[in-house]
Amino acid sequence: MITLLGFFLLEFRRKLLSGLLIAMDLVSINATLLFETDGRLLLQGTRGPRIVVIAASIGAASASMLNSGNFVLYNSAQQIIWRSFDYPTDTILSTQSLFAGQQLLSSISESDHSTGIFRLKMQSDGNLVQHPVDSPDTAPYAYYASGTYGWGDNGTLNLDADGYLYLLNGAGYNMKNLTNRGYTTRETIYLMRIDADGIFRLYSHNLKQSGDWSIIWSSSSDKCDPMGLCGLNAFCVPNDQEALCVCLPGFAMVDPGNWKLGCDRNFTAQSCQSNDVYNAYTVEELANTIWEDVSYSVLQSTVKEDCQQACSEDCNCEAALFIDRTCRKQRLPLRWEKETD
After folding, report:
1. Where are the domains of the chain?
2. How far apart are CA 108 and CA 233, in angstroms?
């Protein structure tokens, strides 16, 4: 038996089912949720095999969608034995928490809910941090941090029914308020989501009014903050409160409609065996621009002109990062480029 007790807003149907629909990446938008007599919970797409979401061994006897958006399974004694809130995807809803070690993954786009390129993780050290999905959990790869490192282990990110978003440590101590208390709860619901652009936002929706969800708080006002937004060999430039992706000199967009694919050379690379390799290229400077430091050679105590010459005379050198009198030779592709002040 499935009992649907809660609200269900079509434009956010995947969000309200939260972690339950992590398998939706594998089935069509018209998939059907099936609760079998043996206690299995299945997803049936318009084609292909059924996907087992919950196995029969868990012993589910009934299911319910709660007003919070939490989808729960009960055993025959009406005890909750499984909750979708324990398996978040890109969203947390009111009364839901993101526990230490858990993370939210962005979608590819607003219309494609496959896993995207950004993540928001509640670290076990108490810090709430954002990274690109294919990066380690270390400071050089973080583009957002709550600054609560070491304030308590086993922290949680929590969202109350009034839109109050905050961090607690394992002892229940408030480490940080991300939003204020006091948003209305009258016919209004809230959710927090890491969006496809890598920024996580708090949304509200009035149940008595038609229209979209409203943004009431954002982790950043700079849409170029998310590391890797523009793909390989490209960097992000703020443009009238929007993000503009620009290719490195000598590169062109792989797909003008999808910046996440980055940029590729618009010239033919010379082999190191070529006699003209040292005369084949010109060097262009990108001032106040940094990127991931994956260097194969580092020259200390040098000046910019010497760094430029050293790269020009090395046929393996395709880029050089010059910072604090240190010249770091690198090969392409470059990723996570960003302009600095």
Report:
1. 1-86, 88-227, 234-339
2. 20
